[in-house]
Amino acid sequence: VQLVESGGGLVQAGGSLRLSCAASGVSVSLTPMGWYRRPPGKQYELVARITPTLRTNYIDSVKGRFTISTDNAKNTVYLQMNSLKPEDTDVYYCNEDPGPHGWRSWGQGTQVTVTS
Description:
Blueprint: E1 2-6, E2 9-12, E3 17-24, E4 33-37, E5 45-50, E6 56-58, E7 66-71, E8 76-81, E9 90-96, E10 110-115
Parallel strand pairs: 2-10
Antiparallel strand pairs: 1-3, 3-8, 4-5, 4-9, 5-6, 7-8, 9-10
């Protein structure tokens, strides 16, 4: 599995970013995919998830602001981030659902920094 995240950057509060995750070795049309972040000293936190049937879930803090989507032809997962807040600052990763032994691999992530 190879996951390549991009699209992060430095924005002011209230701004927007669109993250992309190009996947190989896993089909986003067949596998639930998610966007994660990892606060310092903590475990990976699932921010948004999408299933092959396009059911989506979000953590409460991003509901109404973030939207996860997929492009099956490009085998890519997106995260549209609107109305960004300083507390959204983190490195964002995409990945499939963990298996019985956890995740197979992680990409390098993409840094999102929101200034007040």
